[in-house]
Amino acid sequence: MSTEKPVTAGHHDLTEIDFTTLFASSIHDIKNLLFMLLNSLDETICTVSTNDGDSNNTSSKLSLLKYNGQRINDKLIQMLALFSIAQERYQINIAYNSVEDFIEDMVIEAKPLLNARSITITGIVEDGLCWFFDKGIVAGIISNAVHNALNYAKSEIRINAYAKNEYLVVDVEDDGEGFPQHILQNGGTLTAINDANGKTGLGLYFASVSASLHSNKRKSGQIELHNGGKLDGAVFTLLLP
């Protein structure tokens, strides 16, 4: 006769756990840990660049490590944001922002990673352009677009911002081979996550959902993808009404 007893976790009934909330909380904790790790990497890269005789090679390796960590952090932020939106907990913070200052901040943030890969980044903004948008969520969209471009760019990434047809238009373009056809098959739009081609498309889905949170005069924000542009590569376009 068996004397084995069911395994329990102390006095806790695991069936009472809300695993959706637990999942979101765990992602939040991991994101915070990654943030501290990335800050430490920044300090290490600065120290190596100052003191190491072979600083270029070492800094490049550390920057690549930071890039991979940043990509993980991006995905966690996207998952948390989508979870909050789905649960109707996300509080969008629309404010009047200087587009020039915003793009300048994005370029400054991206430069250390791109310099380590010998890729230049520039921002070109229409003079005096200001717009209403959620700075935090739009920064996430553009940052993800820049990191994607970094995977394929040969030597240059460019961010263009201008007003057109009552929309703020932000293009992130690179001089790579362009988007593959399976990404462009829906006209450069994405309405669901699909891993049929080995990638979930989480970043593009996050960008599409986040853009749609911005609305004005019956118009909603959206993203578009196409090939060409001034650098003859991939072009990610964010449109905000």
TrEMBL record:
Domain of life: Bacteria
The Histidine kinase domain, residue ranges: 25-241
InterPro entries on file: HATPase_C_sf, HATPase_dom, His_kinase_dom
PANTHER family: HYBRID SIGNAL TRANSDUCTION HISTIDINE KINASE C, TWO-COMPONENT HISTIDINE KINASE
Keywords: Kinase, Phosphoprotein, Transferase
Entry GO MF terms: phosphorelay sensor kinase activity
The UniProt record lists the keyword Transferase: yes
Signal sequence bounds: none
Pfam family membership, one: HATPase_c
Keyword Hydrolase: no
The protein's name: Histidine kinase/DNA gyrase B/HSP90-like ATPase
